[in-house]
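Entry 14. Ran structure prediction on the chain below.
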Amino acid sequence: MRGWLKATIGLTVLCGLLVGADRIAVGVAEDEAADQMVKSGRMSKRPDVSIEGFPFLTQALSMKLDDVRISADGLTVGDGNRQVALHSFKAKLSGVEVSDSMRSATVDDGTGTGLITYADLAQLLPPASQLVPSAGKLPMIGPSTRLSLSYGGPGKIKASLGPLPIGEGSVHSQGNTVTADGFKLSGMAGMLAGLTNQQVEPVSFTLSAMPAGLKLASVAPQEDGLQLTFDGKDVKIIG
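Output, structure tokens:
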């Protein structure tokens, strides 16, 4: 009876040591992966990395991680000329093949989301003088004035030009290019500007250097900003 008890205690201790070693190993791998993503230029800020699944060591031996989650706040995205913050970025990476030194990693399939506030989104759009050539005739509109944007309901955003509302428009994406269109100057704004065509020209910008090497899949207006959805297959996230 005592021998059985000793064996049970010994097995329990051994299992605890193995679990502890596994958790230490996964923590080291997560830290190294986060560092390498920044060094590789796939992330503009060091992310939090979580390697899911247990045990980790068997995944490490196979050089393929089933499920990796990354998150970061305050990343930067832009059109090559202007940079804005990407908030609440979260991504799920499936089938991550890694090298033994974590110097390279390729993802079979990845998805993610992030948010650009409306104030930052407006910074990626051209100034009013380019959107509406006659905007200079409107009161309180300077050459550097930009659209003020806010949530307009499902699929819609509201916009104003200085103190003058220009209604609701839609926003959509194709590839990494985001386009906002459908805005019209109000009757008063059009009259003051002397415009016979009150339609505001569509405006677009193309985002570069997507986080985690993913591509832009879609955009959707939310109350607190424009939500971006990302995806990608056979993405090189490290190296």
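The first helix runs from residue 2 to 39. Will compare against last week's run tomorrow.
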